[in-house]
Amino acid sequence: MQRSLVFRRYKITVGSKLSSLERILQTKRNDFKDYQVSPIEDVKRYIIDCMKVVGTDSDHGKKLADVLVKGDNRGHYSHGINRLEMYMRDVKKGACKGKGEPKILNDFGATAWVDGNNLLGPVVGNFCTDLAIQKAKNFGIGLVSAKGSNHYGIAGYYTLKCLENNMIGISMTNTSPLMFPTRSGKTALGTNPISVAAKGNDDDSFVLDMATTTAAIGKIELAKRKNIKCPNTWGADNTGNVSTDPSKIMDGGGLLPLGGVEEMGGYKGTGLSTMVEIFCGILSGGAWGPNVRRWMSTTKEADLGQIFIAINPKCFASNFENRVQDLIDTMRNLPTANKDGLSVEIAGDSERIHEIFVDNLGGIPYHPNQIINMNEISHKYNVEPFRLLGSVEKLVKN
Prior knowledge:
Protein name: Malate dehydrogenase
Family: Belongs to the LDH2/MDH2 oxidoreductase family.
Order of helices and strands: EEHEHHHEEHEHEEEHEEHEHEHHEHEH
Number of domains: 3
Keywords: Oxidoreductase
Helix content: 40-55%
GO molecular function: oxidoreductase activity
Number of helices: 13
Organism: Strongyloides venezuelensis (Threadworm)
Distance between the termini: 39 Å
Radius of gyration: 21 Å
CATH architecture of the largest domain: 2-Layer Sandwich
Largest sheet: 7 strands, mixed
C-alpha cells in the first residue's frame, strides 16, 4: 500500500496527494494573509514574563507557555495565547495558585489519585502525565485521576507527551458548565474534551483532540473578537434556542452538544460529555457538572477533575505501530468525495499541516485583534510585547 503521509519533523511526503496538501497550505496563506507572525520562542518568553508579573513560579510559567504555544502552533487558537489573560487573572485574584506542587493522595499499582492543589492546569497535567507514563512502563498501563485542577489547555498536549514515550495516550477534563444538554433550557455540562493519541510509523500518528460540544467556547470568543457570525450548530441564546450571534451565546447563552440539536444527534454529544464527567469530576472527587465554577468566575476554586491514561502497546498484539499505520494509510487513501478533491484526513492531520505552515513562516501567525489584545496586556502589566516578523502576506512574498 502507498504510504500516504510520512512526517519527519515538519516535512511531508504525500505521494499523489501532494497537490491536496499544497492547496490546503495555499488556502491558509490566503486566509491568514493579514495575520502577524511572531517567533515561537518569543511568544513563550512573553507568556512566562506575564505569569511572573502576577506571582507565578518560572517553572510553572514555562509549563503553561509550552501548552499554550503548542495549542497555537497546532492551530487551536481558542486554547492558546487567547487564554493567557484568564490564567493571569486567576492567579492574580487568588483563584488559582502560581506556586506549589500537586500531591499524590493514593498510589496503588497502575493507578494514582492526585490533588492538584489548585495549581495551574498545565502544572497538574504534566505531573499526572509523567506519573501515568512511568506506571505504564512498570505495569503496562497507568491511570491517574486528579481533582483540584484548573484549565489545562489542549487535551492533546498530554496525549502527545505519551506518544513521545511510545505509549497510547488518553486524556479528558471537565470544564465550566457551558453546554445545554439535549432538551435542557439551562447549561449544566462543560465542553469536556477528549484526546486519544496512537503512534504509527515515521512520526506519523492518530491524534484525536475534540470537545464534546460542537465548538469550544474559545471559538465563540474568537468569532466575537473578529466580529463574525457563528455556524448555526455552535451555540444557543439564554433560552436554549439556536443562535449564530456570538454575543448572545457568550452573554447568558451557551454551547450546543456535539451534533447540535436533538434531531441532528445532539444527544450523543450529551452522552459523551456526561461520560467525561464520570471519568473526571466523579471519579476524582472534584467538582462536577453544574457544580463546577462558572466560566471566567474567580469567586471560588475551579476544582476541575481530569484523567490521564498511558497504555504500553507492547503488552498486547505485536506490530502495533505498523498496524496503526496500515489503518491510517487505508483511511487516507480512500476515494475522495470532496468537491475540491481533498483527501480523507486522519485526526491530527490538520494540526500537523498547521505546524508545517508555522514552520514555513518561521513563527506563529496571530489575528490583528489578538495582537491588539496582547499589546493591551503588555501595557497594563509593563511586559515587553512579543516580537513581530511581519504579516503572513509579506513573509510569503519574501
